[in-house]
Amino acid sequence: xxxxxxxxxxxxxxxxxxxxxxxxxxxxxxxxxxxxxxxxxxxxxxxxxxxxxxxxxxxxxxxxxxxxxxxxxxxxxxxxxxxxxxxxxxxxxxxxxxxxxxxxxxxxxxxxxxxxxxxxxxxxxxxxxxxxxxxxxxxxxxxxxxxxxxxxxxxxxxxxxxxxxxxxxxxxxxxxxxxxxxxxxxxxxxxxxxxxxxxxxxxxxxxxxxxxxxxxxxxxxxxxxxxxxxxxxxxxxxxxxxxxxxxxxxxxxxxxxxxxxxxxxxxxxxxxxxxxxxxxxxxxxxxxxxxxxxxxxxxxxxxxxxxxxxxxxxxxxxxxxxxxxxxxxxxxxxxxxxxxxxxxxxxxxxxxxxxxxxxxxxxxxxxxxxxxxxxxxxxxxxxxxxxxxxxxxxxxxxxxxxxxxxxxxxxxxxxxxxxxxxxxxxxxxxxxxxxxxxxxxxxxxxxxxxxxxxxxxxxxx
Length: 461
Prior knowledge:
The structure is a single chain. By secondary structure, the chain is α/β, with parallel strands linked by helices. Among the domains are: 68-106, Monooxygenase (Up-down Bundle); 111-201; 363-459, no CATH class. It is 24% helix and 16% strand. Helix 3 runs antiparallel to helix 4, helix 9 (259-268) packs parallel to helix 10 (285-291) and helix 12 runs parallel beside helix 13.
């Protein structure tokens, strides 16, 4: 039997069921509309929570989707956007997430923990996630916090046994020189950064980088920014690195008055050096002129320190100082392994370097030594007030110098601009902000070197 109001079609008619379903749906919609017109009670749904559909309803399955319902591939794609600290937190949730966070694709290339200071205890836990494919490791501590202890020997042993690191960046950590030597670092690294690290218990007669050239033969980049413990005599050891191309010593306040070390280092070493950062240091004309003999140099950064800054070095345990040699009459001077005296005044536990601030100012003398043509004349004979000289041979210093920054040096004048315009054929970028160059000198340089980008104090308008 068929309901009233519905035409009597045969069940074999293909349009019968379609008409029947549409007709019943319209009747249900009419009933709902009629109910919606009735007034609702005062305790309406205003303060009621919405009703959740039954879990058995196939149309509402998407409401039950959770994190663990996702496949491992989807979870991996999500975890690629997380920091290592977040991956560590996820691994502690359940066994499945712990297995997924150990996937080698998450730890294959660069592992950067610098988003937040990392404790030594956490670093030792993170080591279990590292893989042989982990090539770059970047960590950051906090020297202002008492919770952050120095790096341990076990941590270095673990990363040497687990990873094949090519880059190791450690910032703002305490390093005990008695427990951790330079030979404890990974051997095959190509980039090492100790930016802002604090060194304790340094030996007085031996550089911390002793035999570094044998231990790290592939090192191409060394960053020692804000390392107040760096002494000038370490330049001799670093200059022996055959493949070293980038050296950053900015804000190393003890680096000053080191003409002897700079002269020997640049004469016999630094054969591949291209980038040199000496900003905010106490170096003067004599030291910069020594670096002008490095023919591979392409980038040089110089900036005058704001003021002569005393360096304070407090050690956890005071170490006895080596007595001076016989040629030294001042018992306060420290002598190193090469029998040279470091110009330091030692007052109890406070170490204050003394130097003349005027000697730390770079002038036109140092800039004119960069990219200059030096005459090499040979006298052949001298007969009766007549001098026979061989034809001049020109030797070019720094022929590949491309970028030069000389900031806040009042003794740098237009003479440096004239020299660079004539004798720096490869120069592409020049910054003379804060110097005493004039607007006319800058315009002259631009007219002679239109392809060079020059920054000066006159551009800040």
